[in-house]
């Protein structure tokens, strides 16, 4: 059972702070690393894999420093985001060369290909593989030395739904077998389907941590901004203002803008008011549902 620990870890690239004072602990099972593009997820994974040195703070695995620790490297596997796989190699050649780099024999490569269910296709060239198959072969390459820790950078990106489900199943299975797995993603739905635990990174900072239900609840409970168009915006506005769930109502050329502090109450109230006032609702749409605003709320910047 392996535990990764980051203590006040920072990483700069010149003047750019990619990871800023992050403290987190990643234990056995599957953890999702969630954050918008550029949040520092890849940098964090590379720090954990020993591919990058920290600029400040410490990154350890089971209490031992990761950076420049060859013994530790034997227990970590990284599946990078970029393809970096030669298309002219067969799956077998690719995974076997990963095995050789670790001083291992063919049986290790065979086991890894079996684990990701790529044995049947192993003699085809990688350029003939689907995105999902390429990703699974990369996972096999990272698993060839049977590491306790597996780090995956945006593993589900660009896959069709069937391939995604297949890889999600595999990641779940590996986690259930006691491995410590961390994978990055910018999509909450993706993370919550695979991970029990979620770490959220926003602009290099650790914004939230916990069970996905808790994070989901915090996302739902934040103030929401809705645009409402109806047959009588003025009447509706007056009734909405009278209710405690409204944080503010303004009449604009495009309709009403309603800010609500209590999402659930508002979504029940609006149809009831419309019915009682005999007002027809033409449009009810959230205006701040984009990921950036959700993330910035979680990180306390809004
Ligand atoms: N080698 C580098 N040199 C300079 N800046 C870098 C380098 N690598 C990353 N950065 C910067 O560090 C920040 C974090 O990048 P990182 O790739 O870790 O984020 P990310 O969350 O993985 O994003 P994405 O999902 O887009 O890959 C970004 O502002 C990025 O531009």
UniProtKB/TrEMBL annotation:
<dbReference type="Pfam" id="PF00005">
    <property type="entry name" value="ABC_tran"/>
</dbReference>
<keyword id="KW-0067">ATP-binding</keyword>
<keyword id="KW-0547">Nucleotide-binding</keyword>
<comment type="similarity">
    <text>Belongs to the ABC transporter superfamily.</text>
</comment>
<dbReference type="GO" id="GO:0005524">
    <property type="term" value="F:ATP binding"/>
</dbReference>
<keyword id="KW-0813">Transport</keyword>
<dbReference type="InterPro" id="IPR017871">
    <property type="entry name" value="ABC_transporter-like_CS"/>
</dbReference>
<dbReference type="GO" id="GO:0016887">
    <property type="term" value="F:ATP hydrolysis activity"/>
</dbReference>
<protein>
    <submittedName>
        <fullName>ABC transporter ATP-binding protein</fullName>
    </submittedName>
</protein>
<feature type="domain" description="ABC transporter">
    <location>
        <begin position="4"/>
        <end position="228"/>
    </location>
</feature>
<dbReference type="InterPro" id="IPR003439">
    <property type="entry name" value="ABC_transporter-like_ATP-bd"/>
</dbReference>
<dbReference type="InterPro" id="IPR027417">
    <property type="entry name" value="P-loop_NTPase"/>
</dbReference>
<dbReference type="InterPro" id="IPR003593">
    <property type="entry name" value="AAA+_ATPase"/>
</dbReference>
């Amino acid at each position: 059972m392996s535990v990764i620990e980051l203590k006040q870890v920072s990483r700069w690239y010149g003047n750019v702070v990619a990871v800023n004072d992050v403290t987190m602990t990643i234990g056995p099972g599957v953890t999702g690393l969630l954050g918008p593009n550029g949040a520092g997820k890849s940098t964090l994974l590379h720090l954990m894999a020993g591919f990058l040195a920290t600029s400040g703070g410490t990154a350890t695995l089971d209490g031992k420093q990761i950076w420049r620790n060859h013994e530790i490297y034997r227990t970590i596997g990284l599946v990078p985001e970029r393809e970096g796989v030669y298309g002219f190699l067969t799956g077998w050649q690719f995974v076997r060369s990963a095995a050789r780099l670790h001083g291992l024999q063919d049986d290790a490569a065979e086991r890894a290909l079996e684990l990701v269910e790529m044995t049947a296709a192993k003699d085809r060239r990688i350029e003939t593989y689907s995105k999902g198959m390429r990703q699974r072969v990369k996972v096999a390459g990272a698993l060839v030395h049977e590491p306790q820790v597996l780090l995956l950078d945006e593993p589900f990106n660009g896959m069709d739904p069937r391939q995604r489900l297949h890889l999600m199943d595999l990641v779940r299975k590996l986690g259930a077998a006691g491995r410590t797995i961390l994978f990055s993603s910018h999509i909450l739905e993706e993370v919550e389907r695979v991970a029990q635990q979620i770490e959220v990174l926003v602009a290099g900072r650790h914004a939230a941590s916990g069970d996905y239900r808790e994070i989901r609840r915090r996302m739902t409970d934040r103030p929401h901004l809705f645009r409402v168009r109806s047959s009588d915006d003025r009447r509706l506005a007056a009734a909405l203002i009278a209710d405690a769930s409204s944080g503010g109502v303004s009449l604009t050329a495009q309709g009403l803008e309603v800010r609500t502090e209590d999402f659930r109450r508002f979504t029940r109230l609006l149809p009831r008011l419309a019915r009682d006032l005999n007002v027809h609702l033409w449009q009810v749409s959230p205006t701040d549902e984009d990921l950036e605003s959700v993330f910035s709320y979680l990180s306390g910047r809004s």
